[in-house]
């Protein structure tokens, strides 16, 4: 299986409380497995507050809905042994 790498990493973002914010990370191969999103070192799941999806097979997105002050921190995207943070 090819080593999936990060082609385009996360970007730091400033957002107002109550707004939604989206993070994007592009990887080198479609259908990447072993992918994980974290906020402040806590693994995120796809639910009503966190929307995790893949666009065009390679662009992984995380949307945090109605962010609060408690959401301040580092967002991490990991694929295999590669990571990107914002």
From TrEMBL:
Cellular compartment(s): Cytoplasm
Domain Ig-like: 2-86
PANTHER family for the chain: OBSCURIN, SI:DKEY-31G6.6
InterPro entries per record: Ig-like_dom, Ig-like_dom_sf, Ig-like_fold, Ig/MHC_CS, Ig_I-set, Obscurin/Obscurin-like_Reg
Sorted UniProt keywords: Cytoplasm, Disulfide bond, Phosphoprotein
Domain of life according to the entry: Eukaryota
GO CC annotation: cytoplasm
Broad class of where this protein is predominantly found: cytoplasm
Protein name (record): OBSCN protein
Species name: Pachyramphus minor
